[in-house]
User: What shape does this take?
Amino acid sequence: FINNRDTFKNYPTTGPRVFVSEYAMYTNAGLGNLIAALSEAAFMTGLVRYSNAVPIASYAPLFVNVNDRRWNPDAIQFNSSATAPTPSWWNQKLFSLYTGSGLLATKDLGLNNMAYVATRGVNEQGRDVVWLTTVNWE
Assistant: This one.
C-alpha cells in the first residue's frame, strides 16, 4: 500500500477527476495496527500531493461492532459500553486538522522509506502556516 502513494502522479489534471472510494490497508493489518496506519498515511500524502486529480477520497470501513466483526480493519471499534479508535482513525484526524488548502512544491529527496507533502493554509488563530507532513516507515 505504501508503494501506491504515486498512483495518480501522471493522471491528467484536466477532464474527469478521481474519487478514491473506500480505501484501507487490510493486508497484515490485524484489527487495526500502526503498520497499516503508516501505509495509509503514506498513501494519503499522495492523495494530497495529487489533489488536482483526486479532489475527494474516503476511508472505509469506519465502524465495527466488536461483537459482530465482518471485516478488518475498521477505523472505530465499539461495543455497548465503549468506543476505541484505531491508529487509522488518528491518521484521518491528523490529516483533517493539519493539511492546508494549498500545495507547496517540494524537492524529491530520493528517500525510499519516507513519504512527504507540504501544504499551506490558515490555522485556528487566523495565521498563515505551512504544514510538512512526513511518514517514515523504517
Remarks:
- DSSP finds two helices and eight strands in the chain.
- Strands lie at 19-23, 56-59, 63-65, 76-78, 83-85, 102-104, 114-122, 128-136.
- The longest strand covers residues 114-122.
